[in-house]
Amino acid sequence: MDFYDFPEKLQLLRKSKGLTQEELAEKVSVSRQAITKWESGQAYPDISNLISISEFFKTTIDHLVKDNDSCITSIVKQDSCDSKELIDFLIKAKCNTYAAKGRECASSRPNSHDLRYEEGVFLYLDTYVGGECFSGEEAVWKNNIPIYAMNYSGRVTSSNFSSDFLKAALMAVPNDKPFRGPDFYVENDYFYNCKVCGDLKWHQGYEEIYYKNLQVYECYFHGGIVK
User: Fold this and answer.
1) For 96-177, where are the E strands, in sequence order?
2) Which of 163, 206, 219, 226 has the largest CB neighbor count within 10 A?
3) What residues does CATH 1.10.260.40 cover in the chain?
4) Confidence (pTM)
5) Minimal CA–CA distance to 196: which of 184, 186, 187?
6) What's the pLDDT tens digit per position in 122-168?
7) Are 148 and 225 in contact (CB under 8 A)?
8) What are 92-113's pLDDT values in tens digits?
9) Which fold is adopted by the domain 6-65?
């Protein structure tokens, strides 16, 4: 079992809940000294403690102890030139539309919110309905042929939600997982967490935002290559 980024991940998860080391120790039934050693990398928890931590934070053990979730396939290492081309465009599109507070285009459906980005032979459309509770789809066309689509559905769970913080997290979309935001994103009292299983061909995931120790937003998404 590897522990690449465990100390940093544990500290971020603890702070996302607004807990002190002593409070987290009480939650997972260990001593405060144990938490201190785990977060400093001086020691690592055994499997029973890892299970307690993963259950408390509602995450997987693989996510806690590895640099990336074990179910993630590295997209950037794929040989397909088309995949890299799609990824580069997808990231540009995301960083020039909703996340960048881009202007909406004409609605494609009654009362829908639509955003559009084009570059060369590629076209990206993001369309969603709703506000505090919403559902939508992102899709990419190459030479007017659909090649990728992702559906998402989410909701705001507290009045402390900040759309500006969500957009900042989505602007940090990683190259190896160009679906939503990074694994972790922190700004002041806000904490963003995103978990993804799969790759560009077929993936599903879940993202959430906490304000101090309160969940204020969650969203499920899934998608893949269209043929």
Assistant:
1) 113-119, 122-130, 133-142, 145-156
2) 219
3) 6-65
4) 0.69
5) 184
6) 999 999 999 999 999 999 999 999 999 999 999 999 999 999 999 99
7) yes
8) 999 999 999 999 999 999 999 9
9) 434 Repressor (Amino-terminal Domain) (1.10.260)
